[in-house]
Amino acid sequence: MDLLYFDAHSHLNFPQYDEDREEVVEDMKSQGFATICVGTDKKTSIESVELALKHENIWATIGVHPTDSTEGFDASEYSDLLSDKVVGIGECGLDYYREGREENRERSKQKDLFEKQIDFAITNNLPLMLHIRPSARSMDAYEDGLLILESYSQKYGNKVRGNSHFFVGDIDISKKFLNIGFTMSFDGPITFASDYDEVIRYIPEDMILAETDSPFASPVPHRGSRNSPLYVKYVADRIAQIKDLEPGIMQKTLVDNVLRVFNIQNRI
Hints:
The chain is an alpha/beta fold and 268 residues long. It has nine helices and eight strands. It has helices at residues 21-31, 42-54, 75-79, 103-123, 140-156, 171-179, 197-202, 232-242, 247-261; strands at residues 5-10, 33-38, 58-62, 86-95, 128-133, 162-165, 183-186, 208-210. The protein has an eight-stranded parallel β-sheet.
């Protein structure tokens, strides 16, 4: 399979694709696109795995999104979903962006859910697909998440690994992720906002990924419409532009990075 682009994080299993999912996947195949379809709870994890097993250019992650903490995480249930097409655990992490009054209680629940999934990832030798979203004008969720990850990293070394999806941290936060061997991925907003140009320039070429988070966060020239893994090319081109690199070279590096981080090169 010849891969020209690899969308590191999408939700092709979501209802927004119910009417034309197979058409989108076939367009991806014909144009050399692949993606990791990401679970956010038990139902969507099952859907991600089913989609990945059906198509050679799709892989899956399984896990529970931090704002779905009411569901909990039962390792035995998720063990039943493991297959050669499952390449990571998540999206999991901490999300403080929309907190209610019971802030401390909610954060404690999210941390417990996160740690259970880190344990599961270590047990099954799989990387993490992180969802970390801080509260407004803060790096709080990143700071708390990194304290947890650094603690595990000290104990388990490079068994704790993965990618911080939809990265919105600053250079100091990116340094901490790099110190524990985690990559960071970027999405459509970088095509119309310059907020993350500095951190993109800072992150080494081999530690950055391109993603869409489809069906959300469409890049220019598709803002306002449903996103697609096919649009990851706009994100890849913008990363190359920001880093002042030849688009074709950056494009190949971004594909190679996903293959390496999620150990897909040994599954093709």
